[in-house]
Specification:
Structural class: alpha/beta
Helix content: 40-55%
Distance between the termini: 57 Å
Number of strands: 10
Largest sheet: 6 strands, mixed
CATH superfamily of the largest domain: Class I glutamine amidotransferase (GATase) domain
Strand content: 5-15%
CATH class of the largest domain: Alpha Beta
Number of helices: 16
Number of domains: 2
Radius of gyration: 22 Å
Order of helices and strands: EHHEEEEHHEHEHEEEHHHHHHHHHH
CATH architecture of the largest domain: 3-Layer(aba) Sandwich
CATH topology of the largest domain: Rossmann fold
Length: about 350
């Protein structure tokens, strides 16, 4: 088997670790394989800003012009960066990514790179993710993309999108596993002093902001009522009635304004509140499930595990917070902060 060609698209202001993280993973494969020249990865950098591209951190990467990326590609990698807003307005780069994707066996992005893939029309109807802080914006800007805010990375067909910054390393390990098998990927992770498969998703590093309200008053009113009544069933028809909208229109406008469907939003808030209670109180898990609106503990366990890949007990063990005196925060204080 010949070397797999990896083409990394970079641009001025790209995130250095979005580039360096996955590239170090691929390069280390070459060093661990005795026959790396034959079975490893051949990595190249292309850029509309060649030959010397300055990342947002000031690091300079030498790259070739975009034309050097012509021909068959195994893996096309697109990073994010703090200059992403300006980069999305560069049609020559966006259109090149769209054309290059047709020649690639797989197309992957790190962090905000998903915006460039979406702008190129590559993620329509596909599942994708990005940095947790920008998932809502990705969903608002590209409503045809099914944005998943929880996973570290999302694999949909030949397209793989990862969450923020360091998550690109997790994604690269998964790509190596697909190419070389789990045993080799585990050896690689051990050599790089990494978790082979990180336990949990983006929710371990972010928190749903209950105060992040929609612009339209009816949807904002519904959000406020949801936050105040999480322990209740919260049926969709009731939410639509309170917003004075038809059920269908409410669901459509809510998703456009908030970035996720109403049911998913409610579950996110319930999980966020449950996390707060697990971190700051000694309440039994069954009582937390009830206070967060889960009809049965089994439902809570399923939802929590799906969101975080941890049981509530495991989460509490890892993240339980102590007061300065070494005592748990009183449950009443946690309830006030969670609400």
């Amino acid at each position: 088997m010949s070397q797999r060609r990896v083409v990394v698209v970079i641009y001025a202001g790209a995130q250095a670790l979005d580039i360096a993280g996955p590239v170090e993973v691929f390069d280390t494969v070459n060093r661990l394989l005795a026959d790396g020249r034959d079975r490893g990865y051949r990595i190249g950098f292309v850029s509309p800003d060649a030959p010397r591209v300055r990342t947002c951190a000031g690091m300079v990467v030498e790259a070739e012009p975009l034309e050097a990326g012509e021909g068959p590609i195994d893996t096309l990698l697109v990073p994010g960066g703090w200059s992403l807003k300006e980069t999305l307005d560069r049609p020559e780069l966006v259109s090149w990514i769209g054309r290059a994707a047709k020649r690639a066996r797989r197309v992957v992005s790190v962090c905000g790179g998903a915006f460039l893939l979406a702008e190129a029309g590559l993620l329509q109807g596909r599942r994708a993710t990005t940095h947790w802080a920008f998932c809502a914006e990705l969903a608002r800007r590209y409503p045809d993309v099914v944005v998943e805010s929880e996973p570290i990375f999302v694999w949909d067909g030949r397209f793989v999108t990862s969450a923020g910054v360091a998550a690109g390393i997790d994604m690269a390990l998964a790509l190596v596993e697909a190419d070389h098998g789990a045993a080799f990927a585990l050896e690689l992770a051990r050599f790089l002093v990494l978790f082979f498969k990180r336990n949990g998703g983006q929710s371990q590093f972010s928190s749903i902001l209950e105060t992040q309200l929609a612009d339209r008053p009816p949807i904002r009113t519904a959000q406020e009522w949801i936050a105040q009544n999480l322990e209740s069933p919260l049926p969709l028809p009731e939410l639509a009635r309170r917003a004075n909208m038809s059920l269908r229109n409410f669901a459509r406008v809510f998703r456009r304004e908030v970035g996720v469907p109403p049911g998913q939003y409610i579950e996110q808030l319930r999980i966020a509140r449950a996390r707060t209670l697990l971190e700051t109180t000694e309440l039994p898990v069954t009582q937390i499930a009830h206070r967060c609106g889960f009809g049965a503990p089994e439902t809570f366990f399923r939802s929590f595990g799906r969101a975080l890949e941890l049981t509530p007990g495991e989460y509490r063990h890892r993240f339980q917070a102590l007061s300065p005196a070494g005592l748990m925060v009183p449950s009443g204080a946690a309830e006030r902060s969670a609400g």
